[in-house]
Amino acid sequence: MLLHSKRGSWFFLGELFLDLELEYDRPIRDRCARCDLCLKACPTNAFVGPYVLDARRCISYLTIELKEPIPRDLRPLVGTHIFGCDICQDVCPYNVKQTATAGEPVFHPREGLHAPELIPLLALTEEAFRRRFVGSPITRPKRRGFLRNVCVALGNLRDPRAVPALARALAEDPEPLVRAHAAWALGRIGTADAWRALEEALEREPDNGVRSEIADALHAPTPTPAGS
Fold first, then answer.
1. Mind listing the pLDDT tens digit of every residue in the chain (228 residues)?
2. Could you give the CA distance from residue 162 to residue 226 in angstroms, rounded to a whole number?
3. Nearest C-alpha neighbor of 126 from the set 147, 107, 106, 112
4. CA-CA distances (angstroms) from residue 217 to 2, 122, 208?
5. What does R_g of the chain's alpha carbons equal in angstroms?
6. What is the SS3 assignment for 4?
7. How far apart are CA 44 and CA 113, in angstroms?
8. How far apart are the C-alpha atoms of 88 and 82, rounded to whole Å?
9. Which of 55, 72, 87, 150 makes a 20 to 30 Å CA pair with 46?
10. Do 222 and 155 form a contact (C-beta atoms < 8 A)?
11. How far apart are the C-alpha atoms of 74 and 58, rounded to whole Å?
């Protein structure tokens, strides 16, 4: 990542391949000095040291690039992020100073995709997912990865209103990855309806990985209600 004195880090880097000799300018100096705000702000402690990022713990990696289950110990730390994370950039003093909005329309949020309601997303079929996110980087984790992230976010919100949608995902979603994380989310919410959905699913679930998630959710201690 590059820090610009006037633009912070909110810009894309590009490169040109030329067959011309160019004059080099001066390297950009270290602008961080003793600042460690990004290291302290990272929810998953992905920064193992100054200028050193363990991508395996980065929320952007976990929600976009990882194709497998999100490690259980990291799920509570992901919070409500369902696609990427910019916390380290949000707290950077160089970015705090830069308040201008991008003038390029393609960088602006699409209508209906700015902080969308999470529960309805669980009902997206493969076709509906492709249609809604066509041309968007959200297609990178595919439907299965994206709904995995939605389940984790709903589990962290612990809102009982999500139980019916999560129960349907656990019972009917064609992707074991989604069913597994729906089970985890139901265990996090921990209401009577959530336990009932888990118990019913355990009797009919054919996938061993999902069965393991269900069993762990049923035996996990009930979390303290949010806000208590």
1. 678 777 788 877 788 999 999 888 887 778 888 999 999 999 999 999 888 999 999 999 999 999 999 999 999 999 999 999 999 999 999 887 765 677 778 777 777 777 789 999 999 999 999 999 998 899 999 999 999 999 999 999 999 999 999 999 999 999 999 999 999 999 999 999 999 999 999 999 999 999 999 999 998 766 555 444
2. 14
3. 147
4. 42, 19, 14
5. 21
6. strand
7. 25
8. 16
9. 150
10. no
11. 10
Report the C-alpha gap between 166 and 191 in whole angstroms: 12
pTM value is 0.88
DSSP state of 226: T
Quote the CA–CA distance of 223 and 228 in Å, as a whole number.
11
* Token pair in block for residue 105: 């329309």
Q: Identify the structural domains of the chain with CATH numbers, from first to last.
A: 37-96+118-219 (1.25.10)
DSSP H or E run through 134: none
Tally: H helices and E strands in the chain? 11, 2
Q: Which two tokens stand for residue 17?
A: 């391949």
Closest CA to 118 of 138, 160, 147: 147
In the block, tokens 């690039």 appear at 65
SS3 193: helix
